[in-house]
Description:
Layout: H1 6-41, H2 51-57, H3 64-71, H4 76-89, H5 94-117, H6 122-133, H7 136-142, H8 148-162, H9 176-186, H10 190-205, H11 207-210, H12 218-230
Helix pairs in contact: 1-5, 1-6, 3-4, 4-5, 5-6, 5-7, 5-8, 8-9, 8-10
Amino acid sequence: MTNEPVGGASEETTRQAEKRRAFLTFLALMVLTAAALAIRLHELGTQDLTFDEEFSTRLTDRTFSEALTYINRRAPLPFLSQWAVFRMTDSFSPFLLRLPNAIYGALAVPLMYVLGRQLFSRAPSLFLACMIAFSHFHFYFSRDARYYPLYFLFSVAFVASLYPLREQKSWRWALLPPILALGVLGSWHGSILFLTATLPFVIAVYWRQIRHLKLFHAWYFYPSSAAFVAL
């Protein structure tokens, strides 16, 4: 008669419970994302076009190079996503114009969960994703053809990608430059947000290496940091 080792059985039970919780979390996140997309798509094309949305209607019959010329100095990514939808469907409607932003708004739900998991356990992270899925302000701007949902999406992705900086040898460092580039192409305002988000984090990561520098003495560092944030 042999006895099963108690420690091994306990570890196996723990692994099974963890897998079950991970699956239920994934399922809940998919349901939240689908619900967020559904409410953003509901009657998406029934509202009249705003003045800012009228700008995008002129992309309908243009080639890629003509679209870039028409966009001129504006951040190109939101307009090019609309242009791609027009070209793939070979048609135009208010629904198609706003469709990319509705999708970007829904994609923010799982991404917000990823950001939450950098800081909290599963339950608070799911609550954070739920708040974004049914947020009135996020819902409103996700049904508009302007750049706000894409800007928000890349902002969340950028902040979430900062946390691998704590592990200085992590391969996830490679995610930071493309997210930064896409975020700036999504909105020129992105450069301001990303700069103010990056500098304090990098300083915190490398504080041990740079704290001996006179530049970071308290009498200089705190007033200059306050001035930078205010600017």
